[in-house]
Amino acid sequence: MAETYEPRRTAVLLVDPYNDFLSEGGKVWPAVESVAEEVGLLDNLRAIVGSARRSGVRVVFVPHRRWEPGDYESWDHPNPTQRNIMVRHSFAKGTWGGEFHPDFQPEPGETVVHEHWAQSGFANTDLDTRLRQHGISHVILVGLLANTCIESTGRFAMELGYHVTLVRDATAAAKPEMMHSAHELNGPTFAHAILGTKELLTALRGEGSGA
């Protein structure tokens, strides 16, 4: 049974669309470039965001904490990703790498939620409040990384009662094995739908059938 999405109740969650992740010269781009290019990440993100806007689906930006001097250094137990950020200064505030990719800029009226410190876009942010205040029940997760922020945000969304959709080729990771784990092993334990971009675009155009 094909998925359908009522525009007024659906949001595309665009996670961490920073230059450091998505642009040539970004600090993290070399780590994800191979997988990103294999799946056509940038073109698929452009297509999904554009389709969402045309169909009236809400686009919500879900950004990671932009690094600032002193972040995590006094913490008792920063996680491994945070320790890496302390070294490479990913998404540094006030830098090109900490800006959103030029093709993924918020339009007037679109929501940019509070920055998440770890991997879930819901933990310690206003994402749940903003979604509920707009009557959102279905969330479509795209962006970076498949096996960290996308997975953590999707799991948290499921726990909060949202219908969760993952998109296999609108995300990336450092290794193909991580993509496989995110979509074939872990995703089916919490996501209500795992689609490709073409399937999702058909559903957003209202051409599917089912519930």
UniProtKB/TrEMBL annotation:
Native organism: Streptomyces malaysiensis subsp. samsunensis
Keywords per UniProt: Hydrolase
Superkingdom to which the source organism belongs: Bacteria
Protein name as it appears in the record: Cysteine hydrolase
PANTHER family xrefs: ISOCHORISMATASE-LIKE DOMAIN-CONTAINING PROTEIN, PEROXYUREIDOACRYLATE/UREIDOACRYLATE AMIDOHYDROLASE-RELATED
Limits of the Isochorismatase-like domain: 10-182
GO molecular function, one term: hydrolase activity
Cross-referenced InterPro entries: Isochorismatase-like_dom, Isochorismatase-like_hydrls, Isochorismatase-like_sf
